[in-house]
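Internal QA ticket QA-208
Title: Verify multi-chain structure generation after dependency bump
Assignee: T.L.

Test input:
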Amino acid sequence: NRILVLHGPNLNLLGTREPEVYGATTLADIDARLAALAQANGAQLSTFQSNHEGGLVDRIQAARTDGTDFIVINPAAYTHTSVAIRDALAAVAMPFIEVHVSNVHKREAFRRHSYFSDLAVGVVAGLGPDGYEAAVRYALAH
Ligand code: DQA
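Actual output:
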């Protein structure tokens, strides 16, 4: 069981970025917690963050041949804009869960549309860092 966790733009600033919206937990904290969870369950977990659309596309394409079974992705702002990342996930034809730290449905109207949700196994929003953990637990069980 090999899980790939992808974080989109500005998520490298978690912990300091709009803490009233995104909380005080850093991305390093989240990644460490997920790695420990996977390890405790005998699974492999890799994480990757990029502020660049093409970097995320390249990493998703690489997942086709690197043994990845399941993707957990927070596309961040690209959620609302990126046909390219959507197409990459469709191309690798791998199950994925879409995660958002904040509840995108109680924010600006433009955050309500996602290019990913109709392809995702499921969507988690508004649970803070716990949302990643819920997604990884699902991936471990399936
Ligand atoms: C986000 C929500 C997006 O609308 C926003 O652009 C982000 C983070 C979240 O995790 O809540 O950067 O994906």
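Spot checks passed. The two ends are 9 Å apart (CA to CA).
Status: verified.
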